[in-house]
Amino acid sequence: SDLYSLGMICYELLTGERPYRGSLMQVLTAIxxxxxxxxxxxxxxxxxxxxxxxxxxxxKEVTVRTSDASALVAQLNRCLKPSATGETQFNGTADxxxxxxxxxxxxxxxRNVPDPRTRGRIFWCVLALLSxxxxxxxxxxxxxxxxxxxxxxxxxxxxxxxxxxxxGSQSVLATPINGDSANGKARLxxxxxxxxxxxxxxxxxxxxxxxxxxxxxxxxxxxxxxxxTDLDDVRALxxxxxxxxxxLWNSExxxxxxxxxxxxPQLQSIALDGWRxxxxxxxxxxxxxxxxxxxxxxxxxxxxxxxxxAAAPNVRFLNIYKARGVSEASxxxxxxxxxxxxxxxxxxxxxxxxxxxLPELRTVTIWGPLDRASxxxxxxxxxxxxxxxxxxxWSDQHVVTDLQIASIGDLQQATHVQLELLPIQDRHxxxxxxxxxxxxxxxxxxxx
Length: 448
Fold this sequence. Notes:
Blueprint: H1 2-15, H2 24-33, H3 39-42, H4 48-57, H5 69-80, H6 94-98, H7 117-146, E1 155-164, E2 169-175, E3 193-198, H8 208-215, E4 222-225, H9 231-237, E5 245-248, H10 255-262, E6 269-271, H11 279-282, E7 293-295, H12 302-311, E8 317-319, H13 328-331, E9 339-343, H14 349-355, E10 363-367, H15 375-378, E11 386-390, H16 402-409, E12 416-420, H17 426-429, E13 440-444
Parallel strand pairs: 2-3, 3-4, 4-5, 5-6, 6-7, 7-8, 8-9, 9-10, 10-11, 11-12, 12-13
Antiparallel strand pairs: 1-2
Helix pairs in contact: 1-4, 1-7, 5-7, 9-10
């Protein structure tokens, strides 16, 4: 992870732009589903060798990604060290000896870069960042090894990899311990933070003073908790001007609390699958134009999902895995949908036919068994590039047939396919051999 983070920094140093932009959820989704532009597209004339090093650092495939810091330093030395290719000649004349020697331009240096010292500066910047990252990792490991354990309290641990150099903010993960008592919680941090996860067991409650400490974090953008929350807690969150991503997993809240959160003008992502809400709660929501990531309540039907689509017309990420009461009739209402997560019990022929009406849909995640008819409409999605198919468990009833695999192989526009917890056999892999677009094939939990 240190080298991956270094690759992100190198990308910005070389191009002046970050490889991924947007809110936290948008960046996480982009990392999982999108490939950043090649640095040479943003900076023409960039050394192909240096570009390749950068791309290997941030590669999605673990087997391709750089994993050895020593090897990285050696690569940088080979790439950035100038090598004189001219042959030195001695002719014994004073005039030629007194003439200024013309510096030899390294072969890797593009012709449109006037100052070769720029590469030297980049080299030392990269080496400095790499060295600091390695030293920090060693120090962090030593600190972790020496830190005393506190089994009776919540432990707040900083994540330096999520530090923000512009605002000086950091992330905090509050980790619960089994048997934790309500009065055993550690003090929540008070310094400016962007991200905080308060993940407690369901029997633990955050007191009003705990929530007051949270609301004193003005830069907070992301909040996730399994703790029980009430209406006063929700209203306190509305005082945070930058809070845009909310996941209250164990919330027995009513429509009033939902309306309070939904009315936050900066809200971009919300997960409601742990809320006990019905269709009526979804029909009274105001317009939320900035909301792009939505996990609806588990208990709603098509009526409620249509209401959510009307209230959040710009949703691009929809997770209906637990919303068993919805069908294709309401999914198609999300016209800007780019990513869909669904249980396969609903993803049948009629559903995938409806998905073909969504021109922006690029990623589909499927849980459970499918019949071949479900894949045929998927092949008609013009922009579908990522397909994830995951089984529940090994079961005699969950059989992957040759026809199903052949159907996935027919998705010629797919560039990334991941099959997990499925009884894939050797002959199934050959179905992808003729795909001209496929860049990544991931097989997890298979019997190969």
